[in-house]
Structure formats: C-alpha cells, structure tokens
Specification:
single chain; alpha/beta; Hypothetical Protein Ychn, Chain: A; 5-stranded parallel β-sheet; 9 helices; 5 strands; disordered N terminus
Amino acid sequence: MLENEAFTTHRRGFLGKLAAASAAVGLGRFSVPAVASGEILRRGAAAADPQFAAWLNKITGKHKILFDIPEPNGGFGLAWARVYLNTTNDTYGTKDAENSVVVVLRHGGIPLGMQSPMWAKYKFGEFFKINDGATNAPATGNPFAQPKPGTLPIPGMAVDELISAGVLFGICGVALTVYSGIFAKTMNLQADAVRKDWVANLLPGVVVVPSGVVAVGGAQEHGCAYCFAG
C-alpha cells in the first residue's frame, strides 16, 4: 500500500482559497464552472444537473453502500469497495452488477480519479504526499489505475477495475475548482485551463459531481449506507 501523510498545509490552502472565492461573491456562495454549479438536490426530486441526476439514478442495487474518500488513505477506500462486493456476493449469493457501490472522491482524494499523465505533469504524488510503495518516492503515476499484476494487495481494487464491475465514482467539482486554482497559482498557469485539463483526463467512468458533500448526501438519500474511507 502507499504511504499517505497528513497534509495540513494543503488543507489550509484549500480552505483559504474557498473562503476567498466565497468572499468575492458574497453571501457564502462562490462561482464554479457550470458542471459543478446549479441548484442542488430538491427533496425527493432530481438535481438540476442532468449528469448528476443520471449518476444518482444508477443506485438501484439490492445492497447499497457509499465509500466517502476525502483523503487518499493508502487506497483503503478502494480496497474496501472490492471487499464489500466480494463478501456481499459470498454472503447473499449476488453478483457485482446486482449491488450498488458508490465511491465519492473529494478534497485530497481527487487525484485517485485522474489518469497517470496528470500525476506526472502536476506532481500529484509530491503535493498530496502519496508515495510509490516500491521506491518510497512521490508517485509519478496513479498507482490505483491500470496497475501491474500483483502491485495491489487485493485483486480488482483498481479504479478502472471497480468501474468495470459497476462501481459508481463521483469526483468533487468544488475540489477540482479549488485545487486547480492552487496549482495554477504555483505554476503560473490559468486556473480554468488547469481545471479543464484535469476534467478532460479523468479516468473513464469517473463523473464530476457538484460537490463531494452533496454527492455523499445524495447517495444516502438514494439508499446507500455510509462508510468513511479517508
């Protein structure tokens, strides 16, 4: 497993950026691109964002659970998703496709949903304190996507493998906006261009949701049990 250290400095940066954006607009709201904005869930109704509504409406399994990943946590949330499917199938005689597993990547968990070239280009391993287990150096690629055989402790726990098994992945639109702004500032780039680059290079099947917290709430409203995995 990969080592994941606390990164208090990045949390402060995230909250500071969020507060600054909120203050600029006033009344506690902040402007984000359309994919991460709009009216959030009405009680008992679909979201204004059709993509988010469609994502939530896929939660139809016999057994439903949400894994909330606000930090990489060595990939444990991904491992637990696979363990849940394996043991649910063994216990109840179901198959992967008959169950609904939802994974929400938010805050510091967002790099898990991005393709390896983004890790190398933006040095996610260094920034998010995620080390390569083999070298103990900052990871330069996503270790939880298209892994070499035997590199992960539980077969089938990679993001792409879980998606193929029907697991729903949502990635926080607010975190993408805030963190891309932080990276843009330190790299002297345009924040919107960085965000677009990240969204264009999400792992196939990872869906941008308005925010991680509204996705966590929406999944529970659709019947998912909650498991903190960060």
